[in-house]
Amino acid sequence: MSNQREARQGAETLTNHRLIIEGDPVSGYVYKSVDRLTGQVVSAYPREAVIRLKSEPSYAQGSVIDTQA
After folding, report:
1. 2 within a domain of the structure (yes/no)
2. How far apart, in whole angstroms, are the C-alpha atoms of residue 66 and residue 63?
3. Which end of the chain offers a freer environment for a tag, N or C, measured as fewer CB atoms within 10 Å?
4. SS3 string of the chain?
5. pLDDT score for 14
6. Which of 40, 34, 37, 38 shows the shortest CA–CA distance to 17?
């Protein structure tokens, strides 16, 4: 019974959110999930910190993570 309730609540949450895509092919896209009732951004991809990092002049792809052991 609780699984059905959780599924119903999850479906209600999804219907209360709207997907907004901002950006362009050159600068990239930002995908935002917005609460339909409040207008608040629930989540965004890529995150704001990543966007700020990419705009810094010293940023280079692969410089965030050291993949060598």
Report:
1. no
2. 7
3. C
4. CHHHHHHHHHHHHHHCEEEEEEEECCCEEEEEEEECCCCCEEEEECCHHHHHHHHCCCCCCCCCCCCCC
5. 64
6. 34
Domain that holds residue 27: 16-55
Predicted structure pTM score:
0.55
35: Cβ contacts below 8 Å, ≥ 6 apart: 16, 17, 18, 42
d(CA 33, CA 20): 6
Total domains present in the chain: 1
pLDDT in tens, 7-21: 777 666 667 889 988
How many C-beta atoms lie closer than 10 Å to residue 35's C-beta?
13
**Structure-token pair, residue 49:** 């910190």
Pull the structure tokens for residue 38.
């409040």
